[in-house]
């Protein structure tokens, strides 16, 4: 009997200790959220990013897309023009794609022929274009963040970026705050 | 067959590739009341794996899956 009681008390103590440990654990990765870091400026990778983003939104997840470095020019608006850029800014502006409709394949581009063929094939197979995917993402409340540092580096101005609901210009901390509380993170 | 399932809404998602069937059905199910059933028709073979995954994650229930040739029919009950 006594032995049994002693065992129970020991277990109780252990349980209380475990409970304290669990309670003091940092609260992280609890939200049903996905953060996609869209680093690439290629058509194929951007398509993958948008398919995952809209798919995740359909699954009921909170979705954040953080566009950085080569991904940044994807969010330029092809209709908008801004002046007052320095030489490097003008150079980046001319050499990088002006929005989602201008991006190329990472492989088999073949001077633009490969990309044109892929786009035609996507249309034939009923696969949504990047512009349509962006529209869809907006309808599904996918949040888009743009890396302010990349924009500054490449000389892009806020006025030349797309109109998107609640578009956020931010830095690494804002993205990390979202990533820290998300279950899934992708780097594309 | 589905004779005993009362369908409240039919969604034609035939010919749509990934991710559209799941995207459309996630929107469409919000247009029926909780407890009602939608019939989603797809031709994307991937949806055989995708729809159950979507249902599990979103908390809805697939009552039955029928396959007639290339057409796949899902009977989905809105639970949330």
Q: Can you describe what's shown?
A:
The complex is a heterodimer of chains A (188) and B (80). Chain A is α/β, with parallel strands linked by helices. Chain A has a single domain (27-187), classed as DsrEFH-like (Hypothetical Protein Ychn, Chain: A, 3-Layer(aba) Sandwich), CATH 3.40.1260.10. Chain A contains 7 helices and 5 strands, in the order αβαβαααβαβαβ. Chain A has a 5-stranded parallel β-sheet, with helices on both faces. In chain A, helix 2 links the parallel strand 1 (31-38) and strand 2 (62-67). The model of chain A has no long low-confidence stretch (mean pLDDT 93). Chain B has 80 residues and is α+β, with helices and mostly antiparallel strands. Chain B has a single domain, classed as Translation Initiation Factor IF3 (2-Layer Sandwich). Helix content of chain B is 26%, strand content 32%. Chain B has helices at residues 20-28, 47-58; strands at residues 9-13, 37-42, 61-68, 71-77. In chain B, strands 1-2-4-3 form a 4-stranded mixed β-sheet, with helices on one face. In chain B, a hairpin with a 2-residue loop joins strand 3 (61-68) and strand 4 (71-77). Chain B is globular. The mean pLDDT of chain B is 93. Classes of the chains: A alpha/beta (188), B alpha+beta (80). Chains A and B meet through helix 2 of A and helix 1 and helix 2 of B.
């Amino acid at each position: 009997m006594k032995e049994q009681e002693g065992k129970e008390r020991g277990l109780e103590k252990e349980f209380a200790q475990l409970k304290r440990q669990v309670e003091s654990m940092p609260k992280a990765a609890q939200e049903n959220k996905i953060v996609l870091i869209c680093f690439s400026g290629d058509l194929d990778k951007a398509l993958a990013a948008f398919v995952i983003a809209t798919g995740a939104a359909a699954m009921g997840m909170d979705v954040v897309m953080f566009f950085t470095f080569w991904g940044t020019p994807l969010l330029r608006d092809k209709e908008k023009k801004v002046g007052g850029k320095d030489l490097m800014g003008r150079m980046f502006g001319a050499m990088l794609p002006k929005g989602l409709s201008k991006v190329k394949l990472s492989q088999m581009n073949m001077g633009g022929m490969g990309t044109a063929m892929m786009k035609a094939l996507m249309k034939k197979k009923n696969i949504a274009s990047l512009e349509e995917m962006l529209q869809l993402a907006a309808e599904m409340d996918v949040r888009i963040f743009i890396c302010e540092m990349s924009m500054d580096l490449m000389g892009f101005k806020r006025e030349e970026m797309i109109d998107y609901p609640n578009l956020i210009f931010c830095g690494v901390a804002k993205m990390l705050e979202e990533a820290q509380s998300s279950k899934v993170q992708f780097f594309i | 067959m589905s004779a005993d399932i009362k369908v409240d809404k039919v969604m034609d998602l035939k010919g749509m590739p990934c991710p559209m069937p799941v995207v459309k059905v996630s929107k469409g199910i919000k247009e029926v009341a909780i407890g009602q059933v939608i019939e989603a028709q797809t031709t994307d073979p991937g949806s055989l794996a995708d729809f159950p995954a979507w249902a599990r994650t979103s908390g809805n229930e697939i009552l039955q899956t029928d396959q007639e040739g290339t057409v796949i029919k899902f009977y989905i009950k809105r639970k949330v």
